[in-house]
Design brief:
It is a single chain. 77% of the residues lie in helices and 0% in strands. By secondary structure, the chain is mostly helical. It has a domain of 216 residues. α10 runs antiparallel to α11. The two termini are 34 Å apart.
């Protein structure tokens, strides 16, 4: 009964609306812990669904689910301390909406039917919009509407893409359920013209939600205005959900013999995203927007690796996992910085190492990890993608990719050094509570450990996820 995974946070979220702030916080953490436990059990036993036509456990879905569940648990623990300082009006509504957001993201990972996944991804937009408007400022209102409008346009294009895929079935009279798993088995019988058109619309539609350039314009503003725990969820979790829709559609394309077509388009969007991130990171003035453009970069890296296939696809999945862990840690750390300095401007921070040493360790380690330094897994993922590009004869693509990564590192390093070591007047003193520090340490440690040792069951899940469309060693 896989449906229980998204029903529990849904019911807990509705309940939280009627609880006191203190009870709502307990419900948030308890639901996060229960969800993580059930996710592990689901991964181990993989039971069937009550509605198998709509929901199914897949390797890619289970991998995303584990990442989502772990991140939500740690973010919920951090949030209980964050809310002690950043006094949010109607805290129970904020917590209830977070739980509804978890429910919709879980539904995405378990969806097998194309239209059910579309509904679930659209539901993530509706569930997350109130979280962005949490502070109720004019800027947050404008950002929320921008987020809803752009993502809704994108999701409408994804709907059209889904309809076009159904036409590829009708054109050749293929009679199977409209699920990703069923379509992958009969992909060669689908009409290639409609299938190509459907993939393009799905890529643009879900790519908007994933943050691929040039459809990324909602992402920097949203991360800038949203509370830091929400930014951690959006960047570390939500972007993965959108990628899952593209990933599963690309698998159908590969099975249909159209992998070169879809792969090349994925690579193009990936490179454009990395180049766009490099351009904006160099001149960035806000650290939360800096992290947002870093997310755009990493989504581009993942799209580029997925399009390459082979080693590149395996590297892309490694980058997906480690980006979620490290970027969520960085956004939580940015919450500590914002609470202390009272500004998102880089120039109004400084000497983080002296003022908040525990936060500094998490911030600088996160910077090293997201920049692709060993021992963090993004280094391994990017290296595999570069090797895969050369093996595939994509020398020019690889050169642009390497140049962009170097440019981004130089820009990010400049900003990180200013935040960490530049002289600045003493910020407002806040106590670095354990709950505001150790979740980041756990995320970073998990990333470091997975760089050296991947449990066999997890390794098999990763390999099975990418081997379906020619990825892996």
């Amino acid at each position: 009964m896989v449906e229980i995974l998204f029903l529990i946070p849904f019911l807990a979220g509705v309940l939280a609306f009627f609880l006191t702030a203190k009870s709502a916080r307990k419900t948030l953490v308890a639901t996060g812990a229960l969800h993580f436990l059930l996710s592990i059990l689901l991964w181990v036993y993989q039971p069937g669904a009550i509605i198998p036509a709509y929901f199914k456990t897949t390797h890619s879905g289970l991998l995303s689910l584990l990442v989502i569940s772990l991140l939500f648990l740690l973010i919920s623990i951090y949030s209980t301390a964050y809310l002690d300082i950043d006094h949010i009006k109607k805290e129970n509504v904020f917590i209830g909406t977070m739980l509804l957001f978890l429910s919709t993201m879980t539904m995405v990972t378990l969806s097998d039917h194309i239209m059910v996944m579309w509904i679930a991804i659209e539901a993530t937009t509706l569930a997350s919009a109130p979280l962005i408007y949490t502070h109720g400022t004019p800027a947050s209102l404008e950002t929320t509407w921008k987020y809803v409008f752009i993502c809704s346009v994108g999701i409408a294009m994804a709907l059209l893409g889904s309809v076009l895929i159904s036409l590829s079935m009708e054109a050749n009279k293929v009679d199977v359920p409209m699920s990703f798993s069923a379509l992958a088995t009969v992909a060669k019988n689908l009409d290639p013209m409609w299938l190509k058109a459907g993939f393009i619309f799905i890529l643009v539609g879900y790519g908007t939600k994933m943050g691929l350039a040039p459809m990324h314009t909602w992402l920097p503003d949203t991360h800038s205005e949203a509370p830091s725990p929400v930014s951690a969820l959006l960047s570390g979790v939500l972007l993965n959900c959108a990628y899952l829709g593209i990933f599963k559609t690309h698998k159908i394309m590969v099975n249909a013999g159209l992998g070169d077509f879809s792969g090349t388009i994925l690579m193009a969007f990936g490179i454009i995203s990395v180049l766009a991130a490099a351009t904006f990171i160099l001149r960035q003035t806000e650290y939360k927007r800096l992290l947002a453009y870093s997310s755009i970069e990493n989504m581009g890296i993942i799209a580029f690796g997925t399009g390459l296939g082979g080693l590149g696809a395996y590297g892309a999945i490694l980058c997906l996992i480690h980006h979620s862990l490290i970027k969520s840690s960085l956004f939580l750390t940015s919450g500590n910085i914002l609470l202390s300095y009272g500004s998102r401007q880089i120039e109004k921070t400084g000497n983080l190492a002296g003022h908040m040493p525990k936060t500094f360790v998490a911030f600088f380690a996160g910077f090293l990890g997201i920049s692709g330094f060993p021992p963090f897994g993004i280094f391994i993922g990017e290296l595999l993608i570069i090797i895969g590009a050369f093996q595939a004869g994509r020398t020019v693509w690889a050169g642009i990719f390497i140049f962009s990564l170097c440019t981004i590192f130089a820009g990010f390093l400049n900003h990180a050094m200013k935040i960490s070591f530049d002289d600045h007047q003493a910020p407002i003193k806040i106590t670095e509570k354990a709950r505001m520090i150790w979740p980041q340490y756990v995320l970073l440690t998990t990333s470091a450990v997975l760089s050296f040792w991947i449990p066999d069951a997890l390794y098999r899940t990763i390999v099975n996820a990418v081997v379906a469309f020619g990825g892996g060693f």
